[in-house]
Amino acid sequence: MTVKRCPECLKYFEQVGDWQRICxxxxxxxxxxxxxxxxxxxxxxxxxxxxxxxxxxxVHPDRHGGSQLANSxxxxxxxxxxx
Length: 83
Ligand SMILES: [Zn+2]
Fold this sequence. Notes:
mainly alpha; two-stranded antiparallel sheet; 2 strands; 48% helix
């Protein structure tokens, strides 16, 4: 085991293998950032609540004879709103 200096935070850490280029803490932070990027399904778009309310009224399955498309869109919207 060798002691290396992390290029990210400039702190020393014990290198377990050649593959380890940055310290555990920086690796964990980088991984967290990567994960949160991929999990962000909103793509930065924010639908204002009043508009979302109208959209939900329009796509409500009752208005579309309980169509499968209306049901799936409604389910997606509910998921976006955390319901
Ligand atoms: Zn580091």
